[in-house]
Amino acid sequence: MKLFAACYTGLQKRRRWLVLLLLLLAVGSVWNLSRLKIEESIVAMLPDGKSRAAKDFELLTKAPFARKLIIHLRAAPGAGVEGLLAATDRLRASLPGELFSNPVSGPKDMGTSALMSELGDYMPLLLDRKELQQIADQLNPESVDASLAADVTQLLQPQGIALKNKIRRDPLDLQRFALQKLRFLNPFPGIRVDKGHFLSRDGRSSLILADTPVLMTDAAGGRKLLDAFHRAQGQLPAGISAELLSGHPYTVANAETIQGDLRVVLLASAVGILVVFVVFLRSLRALPVFLLPLFSMAAALVMVSLWFDKLSGITIGFGAVLLGITIDFGLHVYFALQLGDNSRPQLLQAVSRPVLFGGLTTLAAFSVLLRSELPGQRQLAVFAIAGITAALLLALLVLPHFIGKREENTGLGRANNPASLYTRRPGLRWFVLLSWVGIAGFCAFAAQGLRINGELRQLGYMPQELQKAEKRLAEVWGGGRNRALVFASAADLDMALQRNEQVWQSLVEHKVQDESVSLAPLLASRQTKRQRVDDWQVFWRERRETTEDLIRAGGQKYGFSSDAFSPFFSGLDNPPKDLDIETLQRWGLGRLLDNLLLKDNNSYQLVSLVPDRPELISRLESELATLPGVTLVSQTRFGKELSREIGIDFSRFIIFAGLGVVLLLLVLFRRLPEVFLALLPVVTGLVVMFGAMTWMGLELNLFNGVASILIIGLGVDYGIFMVCHDRHKEYLASSRAIIVSGLTTLVGFGALVLARHPALHSIGLTVLLGISASVPTAVLVIPAFQKKAG
Amino acid sequence: MLKTSLSAAISLILFMVAPALCCAESTDLKSLLNELKIASAQTRTLSSRFVQEKNLAIFSEKLLSQGRFVFQSPDSLRWELLTPVASGFVLRGSRGERWNSLNRELERFSVKDNPIMGIVAQQLLAWARVDLDWLEKRYHMELITLNPARLRLMPLDPGEAGFIDYLQILFADNRRHVDEVLLMEKGGDSTLLRFTDVQLNIELPENIFSPPEF
Question: What is the rounded CA–CA span in Å between residue A480 and residue A145?
């Protein structure tokens, strides 16, 4: 590449301009960074557009209680219910309103609420034909006699005083059919109401639900929220504990873990790079090489901020780490210029070809990400492409001017090259080749079992204490937060209610209504209510006389007065009242409505919660797909959907990146054997990485999937350098450059293995595995093949 | 003029005498409650028969029933009707069983899950233990007669006051247990319980707080 040699010669007397250019780049980057809008949301790493996973994710965020703060109070053995309820009230009162809005510790006392006394009046609107038939079956002398006998027994007991009026209005206890509708509203199966509080069945736990203006992804706001909670929690009496469950503790734990991890990782990396520097470079002339990634990142930031309005924090963080690899270009230029025997323009001309092609293959690999379904990956692609391009230009045009004069050869020299070693010890070559075949073969076999995991929660740091708190909540209150959701949507409420009824019908047909939560049994569409009222009136027109006779006869037997049940019969004549949203709110069910009936500017959505069992979901899915305006979303299926999309994305990436890389290698080498040799490090790196991951029980996820691009980019670079090394007459010190660049990558990325955060740890482990295989393959296996071929 | 003077004199007398009457009643009530508290503290077990008379508008005749009531400190109860329909419940702490010989069904309950049974159990335990602290919180008490000791209790809780007008309690001469409870409802219905054969601190059969077998 004569161009770079000519540029070097031309710019030799204009270094001040280069310094000015670098300063401008740094200033521009800092200015850009200050006005950049950074999003700290995982949404950037979720598929967008019209993909199924993107739609599912949007709907999952609307899940009841998904955005609520849940405070779970527990009483230690020995602490009574009264104490627990008093502590619940005290804690609720001490939560600051600006962070905990609308705190609720229970509905009004259900025993005395209008709901229990009025529900029976709405039976004409609530009971369907099946339930009317059950009533009809009960209208016979034996059943009526049994009901009235039970009434007498109840009236004789002390509780009879409270039940007298209810028995007069409903001697046959028909209200039980209406009461059954309420059980389908309870998202927490383990809940009961005591003195207006949510209380667990065992009386040892209570709940406070609240809203908050703090976004789930806001780590700083989350910290304030947690601090406020801990202050309020500190006032609880001995024997009562409280836990806050929401997305915020995870956000804060993740942010704090990442901050802690970064301290450890940066320290480990700094120490590692210092060791690499001391062992292999030992010269201040090499310092500009280490500045190369910083300037590349500055250029990438400028470019990417021109392209996007908002940047994902994940893109910047991950991208900055990725650009650490650009140090490799500088190292190759540095070693070639420092250790080569020829003139600087000659050496630059020789090294520019592998550096440029190495950079181009890495660009090809990252450019495939431009077509990713994940917006964060597309941003990452732009960031990486801009950074790598800048790094290539800086390494070939700017860096040679700042490396300084050539030093005498130190450390590894030509004599220590593997090629020279194989000449001296031919058995070593066979040992290397056989070992390589064995390891690669074993890993290729194991790699077939590699699994892809789209479970988002596993990418985050889940402190054990929080996991235990979640488990305790599920154990005490039931799995209300982990159910699949069915949305019935329409532009008007009545249509949405009709669709919700169809969903409910389907759940009944699958016999899962008892495990589901839905408004459908209680809040019916106009059409259904009309139908039920008609059925109710026809029913009693046909049976009223018989029923009156039966009750009169039975009543006489037990001594009831002739007008004892007149409230029941007059109730049958009353015109039915409408059961609407206002009624439900008056009954104290407003909070529940807010969670199960969502309204935006254009539509109404009714949410049903169903058990998230794979076999049920797959059956329901095909059935509900035929209903217009109905969508089923399941956490389990979302994970699978995401895994599938990651899998498709990853396969597409591997195919396109592979094709791009092979094409570039063909252009560069024009000979198939050399192309194959250049591909050895990348293929070995990937195979060992996937094989070892399977063997260690690790799965491919969003983050280590992207990290594998790095293995492709770097692995191909190593291959190109080693093959080029053999073709050039100039000594380019490629083995040494590869070992040093591999080591810098290992200490830079591999240090992430020390991180506690699962995403960072998985990136570190992936890179550690891949690079540990790529570098020896490039440095030892390629020369072994070359020798063999030669 | 005479009328005015007379009414003024009566008012003056009432003005001067009423506080004294009030204080006298208050003092008597307090000392009676203290007496009851001391006497009830000695009760470990209580076993009695009772007759229940219910005057309810929905029945054409008075409902008479008989049964037995057993208590063991601190929180075990047996309330059982023997005639006309064998039915009742037992309570051990917060859990118990109730039964009804008509349907021959035994139903387990917890006072936490069943608010009505919770209130009933609380009331019966309070009366059996003569838990005056609890009763004073829930009722306004009036002393009707000191000998025999007869109290009238008006519910303070609006829910309870919605259907109960007052309770009238007659204590035994020795103040150690309740002899009679009259419950007047708002609509005029009433329930009278008369306790007989009251035995205090006797050894109770082991299975007395277990439900009968059907």
Answer: 41
